[in-house]
Write a structure and sequence with these properties.
- The protein is an alpha/beta fold.
- It has 4 helices and 5 strands, in the order βαβαβαβαβ.
- A 5-stranded parallel beta sheet has the order 4-3-2-1-5, sandwiched between helices.
- The protein is globular, with a radius of gyration of 13 Å.
């Protein structure tokens, strides 16, 4: 495999029918189990980004400990009124998820919306 990077994208309000953060983290863990050599990044965008500072913070930090990157959109954090300093260690913040996702795809990463 040339590029072994997988970008999972979680966007939406975090209510049904949209997936929640826990489901996205399970998907990332399943990908990690089947693709141990791949770099795996979960990009969180939209109102669901507030879950990274809420009751799901431990799960997001756990994903980072497993060698996966969890990335939050700064624009979404601002819209949700979340101070990025309140995010757990291991969460990366990018200015705009849309530009970050484009750059990752331009670089050859596989993209899956979860």
């Amino acid at each position: 495999m040339e590029n072994t990077e997988l970008v999972l994208h979680l966007a939406g309000p975090g209510t049904r029918p949209f997936p929640d953060l826990e489901a996205a983290l399970r998907t990332a863990r399943n990908a990690r189990a089947e693709l141990p050599e791949a770099g795996i990044e979960l990009v969180v965008q939209g109102p669901v980004v507030a879950r990274l500072a809420g009751d799901a913070a431990e799960a997001a930090a756990f994903a980072a400990e497993e060698g996966m990157t969890v990335t939050a959109c700064r624009n979404s954090l601002r819209s949700a009124g979340i101070d990025e300093a309140t995010l757990p260690a291991g969460i990366t913040v990018v200015p705009a998820a849309v530009a970050h996702l484009a750059r990752r795809q331009f670089g050859g990463a596989a993209y899956i919306r979860v």
